[in-house]
Design brief:
By secondary structure, the protein is an all-alpha fold. Helix content is about 75%, strand content about 0%. α2 packs antiparallel against α3.
């Protein structure tokens, strides 16, 4: 015969409640993990420039893609026209330079739009500074 214990509520004949024990263990483990993460963040805060650097890399990648896309599109159109019309190499040369011009114009247009957005962002007050 088992003797009921006060720890388990005494309703199941003294057997421990596995769910209650697991929950308390998980809660204790969660508290330890959170304390460790908080201590690590205090010792090693993230640099403030990380987001700006990632944005700058993305902007550079976008601008280079704009230029390369113009060159490739112009080259393909010129090659296709040369193939159909039999005017090798003139179509390729003309449309390659037209693609290059279009790519450069797209880069300028995109860069000016990005600069305007960045200027607008700097004028806007920072609402996320006090939140955490």
């Amino acid at each position: 015969m088992t003797i009921p214990t006060e720890r388990n509520g005494d309703k199941d004949g003294g057997r421990p409640d596995p769910l209650r024990d697991d929950r308390s263990d998980l809660t204790a483990l969660d508290a330890k993990i959170r304390a460790h993460v908080d201590a690590h963040k205090r010792k090693n805060p993230e640099p403030a420039e990380t987001g700006k650097r990632a944005t700058a890399i993305g902007m550079a990648f976008r601008l280079s893609t704009e230029l390369v896309a113009g060159l490739i599109a112009g080259g393909i159109v010129g090659w296709a026209l040369d193939h159909v019309l039999g005017t090798k190499p003139w179509g390729l040369l003309i449309f390659f330079f037209l693609g290059m011009t279009a790519g450069i114009m797209n880069v300028f247009r995109t860069a000016s739009a990005m600069a305007a957005a960045a200027a607008q962002e700097q004028k806007k007050p920072d609402h996320t500074a006090g939140e955490q």
